Amino acid sequence: MKRYGACTDCDTEVFDCRARWPEGTPLEGHIRIRMGAKDNAMRATIALMDGSSIDLTFCADCIPTIAENMVKIWDKVIQRHVLSVDPEVRKALGYPEHNPRQHEAAEREAIHLIHNKPFGVLAVQPWNEVVEWLA
Ligand SMILES: [Zn+2]
């Protein structure tokens, strides 16, 4: 499953960590709250078949192989979105409970991704530039 604050392909952490999930929880050791992006944090915009796109985080080393690893990468993205819709899974992971509107939105997003396929990388940008540009 895709790890928060980490490369979507190799799971290397590319954001500084402010807090981790505690021992004994399902996501033990994963970043819970992230801080600034590290220098090797990249944001790739992936084109989907329906004309929409999704932004995913990678480390700089994994950028050249996004296309060849896309099946594995996409599986991790889907897994994350599908799992985080299920109220029981959310509870087990320690995620806050969704209200009905949040649940509906999460379900819509999961269905949107499941019925889509990625077909190419539209753009790659260092996360640090994304943050500076928004600031
Ligand atoms: Zn990586």
Describe the fold and architecture.
By secondary structure, the protein is of the alpha+beta class. It contains 4 helices and 5 strands; from the N terminus they run ββββαααβα. It has one domain (15-134). The strands form 2 sheets. A 3-stranded antiparallel sheet has the order 4-3-5. The protein has a two-stranded antiparallel sheet with strand order 1-2. The longest helix is centred in the last third of the chain and has 15 residues, at 100-114. The protein is globular and about 35 Å long. It starts with 14 loop residues before the first strand and ends with a helix. The relative contact order is 0.21. The structure holds zinc ion.
Question: Brief description of this entry?
Answer:
With 135 residues, the protein is of the alpha+beta class. Helix content is 33%, strand content 27%.
- How do the strands of the widest beta sheet line up side by side? 4-3-5
Tell me the overall shape.
globular
Kindly estimate the percentage of residues that lie in beta strands according to DSSP. 25-35%
Radius of gyration from CA coordinates: 15 Å
Give the termini distance in whole angstroms: 30 Å
Structural class: alpha+beta
Please summarize the sheet with the most strands: 3 strands, antiparallel
Strand/helix succession: EEEEHHHEH
Q: State the total count of DSSP E strands.
A: 5
